[in-house]
Structure formats: structure tokens, C-alpha cells
Amino acid sequence: MRVFVTGASGWIGSAVTDELLANGYKVVGLARSDDAAAALEAKGAHVHRGSLTDPDGLAAAAAASDGVVHLAFNHDFSDYAGAGRTEHAAVARMLDALAGSDRPFLLASGVASPGMGRPLTEEDPSPFHGADSLRGGSENLALEAAGRGVRPVALRFSPTVHGMGDHGFTSVLAKIAKEHGVAGYIGDGSTRWAAVHRSDAARLVRLALEKAPAGARVHAVAETGLPSRDIAAALGDYLGLPTGSVAPADADAHFGWIARFFGLDVAASNDRTRELLGWTPTGPTLFEDIAAGAYALPD
Predict the structure, then answer these.
(1) Torsion over CA of 135, 137, 141 and 144, rounded to 10 degrees?
(2) Contact present, 155 and 207 (Cβ < 8 Å)
(3) Fold topology of 168-194+225-277+284-291
(4) What is the pLDDT of residues 32-68, one digit of tens each?
(5) d(CA 145, CA 105)
(6) DSSP code of residue 221
(7) Where are the domains of the chain?
(8) pLDDT of the residue at 299
(9) Looking at the domain that runs over 2-159+196-223, which CATH code has it been given?
(10) From 40's CA, which of 2, 6, 13, 159 has a CA 20 to 30 Å away?
């Protein structure tokens, strides 16, 4: 099976590429740069040069494949709305290319759902619709294609997909802690983040490609919800820093752009995903990775 993977050289995408290649899939990875192309070729993957801003090129690559795993996203927090519109256009064109083929289209999404007051479940629909909504409303855009002869699956990733070498949200929190001399959390620190190890997330993507039915939402979640004060304490313990509360009014000044995410309650269950895919997370926990030095910083 020939699978077109966007974001194939990224943090999650490179692990997914490895997982697919190890299980006999042919991978065509999207690459924007010479370095990304070389890394993919060294693994034995084929390369499609392009970017999310070239929806026609993405559509051509999708049409030439037996399935798509769309993991790329332009994380430009200076123009997040524009990034969402780019995402919407890219997804729309790839879905058009796959219409009537019954081929799988797996799309990276997240478990954020403001105001739930409880862990998000796989049965909960995304509240985001349209190009101007979060991530361009791409989850709903994709799932609606189930009626057009496509097998869409929403891959809802935890806010922290952790492991050695992670440069994501938890790494940013570690850098901010070192900069300020305190591992901070917002308010009483009761807001939560779901978490999953990178290897478990990659295996989930492969299983979803093989097993998930059209319209499914699957949760790449191993730990349902870790309180932000506990995440800060784990970082503080490793870095040798005190832990402290940051008033909500001061959060933007202290944390910068990540304050909007660290202040969200982003907890999610995985019961339905485990049952549907036969998936059991086996990788280290977030706190085990922190203690093992995954977020060590240079002096």
C-alpha cells in the first residue's frame, strides 16, 4: 500500500513514517526542504516536494496514493487564523482528489474542546466548523467526506506527544521555567493536559489506517489528564527549580504565546480507541520522560 504522508519529517510524522515502513508500507513523504527530502530518502521513503500552500500539488500526490495520512500543519502563531485557512484549503483539495475512491484519509487533529468540564470522548464532535475556525475546521471538513466515497478518520493527538528529542509544548515550558527561574503553572494548576508517547502515537496511526471505519475519531491519548501544576513540578524537580503559581492576569507576560494552551483544560479519554483498534499504550509516561532527561536544557 502506497501512503502519502504530509509532515513526514516532523516530530510525529517521522515516527509514523518509520512505523509504516517497518510494516511493509510504501511511504511518499511531503518535503519542503532539501534536508527533509534527504532524511526521508535515507529511510527508504519516496519524496514529494511541496508544501501546504500548494493544494494542487497535494491533491496530485493524494490521487497517486492508496491512502493519505495528513499530519502537517503550519504552526505560525503570529497568524494562526491564516494557518487555519491554509489547512482548510489543503484538506479540501486532497478530499476532492480522493472522492469516490473509498481510500483512507487520516487527518491530524487535537483533543481541545473548550468548556467541556470533563474529558473529551471519541463520541464528542468537534465544535469547529469553517475555514476561520480553529485549524480551519479541518476535522469536520474531513469527516463530512464520508458521504463522498472517502474513508476519513480524525487522529486526535494529545497536546503533549512526548519522547527524547521532543521540541513541542513541554519543551517550551521547560525553556520558560529556566528563563524565569521557576517552573510555573497558571492559577491553581488544576487544568489538565492529556499525554502520549511518540511511539504509541505512531502505532495508533498505523492501526487506524488499517482498521478505523469512515467517520471515526480516535484518541492518541495514553494519560487522560495531567494537572498543569504536576507537569510544572516534574519539570522543576528535574531542572532543580522551584514550582510556583502565575496569576491568570500575568500568564501572557510570563508564558508568552503558550499561555493560551497551558491554561486550557485538555483532558481526553481513550476507551473507545483502545476497543476499536486493539491499541494499548506501552511507552514511558510524560513524567518518566521528564525524569529521564527528555527536556534537559543546555547551561
Answers:
(1) 130
(2) no
(3) UDP-galactose 4-epimerase; domain 1 (3.90.25)
(4) 999 999 999 999 999 999 999 999 999 999 999 999 9
(5) 9
(6) -
(7) 2-159+196-223, 168-194+225-277+284-291
(8) 67
(9) 3.40.50.720
(10) 159
